[in-house]
């Protein structure tokens, strides 16, 4: 008994009943248009005629109109929002966004037509049947009602049948609740079928997830490159300054330059770290394509790496597209980090050439007796450089050449 009551009057049943009443409210404009069409055909006395022929005719005219208007792409998001909130169906079983394609629009139109059609019937019964059922149930307690047309219609003006009106009225209310629960359950069952994602929707969702993952991977690479380079540069500068002080040397200018480089590097890195973490906090992975250091910031980058790094830039870096300039900066940054990790403080030469067809980056440092190694996991060391170049349609190569370790990157403009 309790389970039956929950099915008919529980929270889920009440929400689905409300969903049907909402469908009836949405059907009202179509019903009014239907009355304007059918009223003159049956010689109805007015717009709101109680004629059954007008009511049924307006319903029959309104349903096709609802189906046509639901073919617009924006109809599906509205239907999905209402169904998610009121039908008790898991949210992930619905499609997101406007309907695209003939098949998706047809399914969305079918759902909307079913929703407003069933909702109009349930909403009409909800408005009309309870007062009538209460009046019928009250017949045994009201002699005036028993003598009315209602009592004579039911044959309850005879005392022997008068108490049959009470269970009859209650059964009417139960029948209304059962009809609303059944209609709500049917809509909930059909909602994933008619409002669920089509193959095109699934493909678009997969592409969105791939784009978000790529954006987040880009943020992770930027964070790794920025922080990794800063730590390597700071460690190198601090170690050099410590060795000068421990040797008792008087080269305070060198120590001052090392501390200045540490200050500039950490300040720049904190700014970049705040930018990346801000994008992550706001949930905007696409912001990875936003502002960031480019080729114009190479001098500050090299200055922070220490006096053993020499930079040569040819061409016009300002004419390089922003995205390419940003990626070229990160490649130089990762190359310097790799050199600091493996070159042991040896001189490093950085050459950046901006040509008409491509951007060429070359970094060289003397061999230290052991070649640079890459760590597992993309976005680290030389593997990260190769990944960035490949994404931009370029090439990257590293290895010993003429007694030096050379990193050469070519990226088309």
Notes on the protein architecture:
- A hairpin with a 2-residue loop joins strand 4 and strand 5 (404-412).
- Strands 1-2-3-5-4 form a 5-stranded mixed β-sheet.
- The protein folds into 2 domains: 2-197, no CATH class; 209-412, 2-Layer Sandwich (Heat Shock Protein 90), CATH 3.30.565.
- The chain is built from 13 helices and 5 strands.
- The protein is α+β, with helices and mostly antiparallel strands and 413 residues long.
- It comes from Streptomyces gulbargensis.
- Residues 216-283 form the Signal transduction histidine kinase subgroup 3 dimerisation and phosphoacceptor domain.
- Residues 326-396 form the Histidine kinase/HSP90-like ATPase domain.
What structural keywords apply?
single chain, Heat Shock Protein 90, 5-stranded mixed beta sheet, 413 residues, 13 helices, 63% helix, alpha+beta
Layout of secondary structure:
Blueprint: H1 2-9, H2 11-38, H3 52-69, H4 75-86, H5 102-137, H6 143-147, H7 149-153, H8 165-195, H9 199-246, H10 252-281, H11 298-305, E1 309-314, H12 322-342, E2 348-354, E3 358-366, H13 381-391, E4 395-401, E5 404-412
Parallel strand pairs: 1-2
Antiparallel strand pairs: 2-3, 3-5, 4-5
Helix pairs in contact: 1-2, 2-3, 2-4, 2-5, 2-8, 3-5, 5-8, 9-10, 9-12, 10-11, 11-12, 12-13
Enzyme class: transferase
Keywords: ATP-binding, Kinase, Membrane, Nucleotide-binding, Phosphoprotein, Transferase, Transmembrane, Transmembrane helix, Two-component regulatory system
Protein name: histidine kinase
